[in-house]
Amino acid sequence: MAIVIAEHFTRRWQAAGLIDGDTAARIVAWEAAHRRPVFLWAVTGMGALALSLGIMAIVGANWEDIPAWLKLAVDLGLTAACAVVVFVCWRRDWPWRRELAALLLFGLVLSGIALIGQVYQLQSAPWRALTLWLAIATPFLALTSTSRLTGTIWTVAAVITWFVAEEPLEGLFVYLSGTAWISTYQVALMGYLTASAMIVISILRGLWPPAREQAGVMGRLAWAGVIAASTFAVSIGWLESREGPLVGPIVLATLTTLPAAVAVWLGGEPNERAPLLALLIGSLLIWSLGLAVTPMHGKSGDLVRALLFIVYWIGIGAAAARASRRGLFGLAFTMVGLRLLILYFEAIGGLTATGLGLIGGGVLCLVLAAVGWRLTRGVARRTGGALT
Amino acid sequence: MSRAFIIAVMAALAFPVLALAALVGHQEFLLANARILSVPLTGFDPRDLLRGHYIRAQMDWDWEGAPAVNEYEAVDGALCVVAETPKPRVRFLAGWKTGDRTDADCRLVIAGHARAPSRFAPSQLDNGDGGIQFYVPEARASDLETLMRDRPGSLTADLAVRADGGAAIRALRVDGRKL
Questions:
Q1: Number of domains into which chain B is organized
Q2: How large is the ipTM?
Q3: I need a labelling partner for B38 at 20 to 30 A (CA). Which of A241, A369, B94, B132 fits?
Q4: Do A64 and B137 touch (CB under 8 A)?
């Protein structure tokens, strides 16, 4: 398959005058010499899948007949065997086998906790099981796994655990912020806090050279979290408003932004410090304003929130254009366009209010697409040098 | 690579196995030091969303002194079990905590939450609304729900009650036979 794709593209590039005939021939010859048996892999994969599904079906059908002690013994045995495999792969420096084994062990720990809960009929809130899972698995993940894939799954697991614990954390937030929370607003705060904490964690993780790539992806997820939390904070006005002082939550968010800002300043790349700090401070400002305007009802509230949303995403778009990040610029433009469209439909009172309303919406979409096309083409591409 | 780092990795990898084994050991220890109390189960609404894997039920107590609890309220306390058979005869002790004194006629004390009307679930088993989830064989869930409805008292749970008032489910029984 790879050779066919290589031939297609080399012919295309040769026809466009980008590469000469010799280079095209060398590329095709190299691909032919390094071809991978994709179809054999596919057949092997299907065989392994069928085998594992068959084993699972047999175990599942006889699950109730298997004594509890045997289930627990097999689970502990598998967990121990997987831990040994991780260790062997780590010692012999087999990165991908080590990463896959570490992920499998991560999953086995969770299934072990679930099995113990099932065998002993334990009743517990899901966040307790998830917290235990992370507490048990974090040490070996931190020491043995350095890939981006594992870092992503680890981060997602931690964030899910944090949000699943929303209810038991409510008391803590009330105590810290001095404000009675409604779930939606607590989610906005929890999102912002976790993203700020993840920035610090990713920068600290990046201090260990083998985990630098993993820390990079964790950092990107954290920044995406900051943007998502701020966007969410200026989008929740239509839900039930909470009356009362908002100083507490804003102070709390500011206090968690400080360590993130210090970490960015001390540990971030020198050329990225200023834009990232600007993004962090801008996000805190928008998040705080979003929370402050939630009690505003009606059209004026919708308008203020929409303006905050648009200003925020224009800021992100401008920063992306300066940093020559076309993808992020395109996303920012899309977000602004979507918000304008929503604002338009909010203003006319519904999607199908009138035929003219729909025509106006369609024209707005086309105009936005045309403007977006022109603006995106105007953003310079990042020059990363030759591909290596 | 330093020796200390290798030892740290080995310890980090051994930790999940030891932690899971410790969880199993802890549960076995709790059960080994508990007294068994057989409690009839009755139906509970709403039924479990994962119907087929779990059934939801509540414990059917013989109340000597029912809890005074308002609608939608949960009161912490304990059950004083004054007689174990045929159905546990109980009295609610509002505000009871581990270490508090109990009446002389209490043969067992089970810590938990009381709700209206006359519903009590042990702390570790309470599913948040006074209901309790029981993991059951998938093929039998429907029959067990019918059994609870049609023949009250035939489905019972063996509660392992510890001296500190904690309780865990030891077994489910149908007409005295272990499920």
A1: 2
A2: 0.72
A3: B94
A4: yes
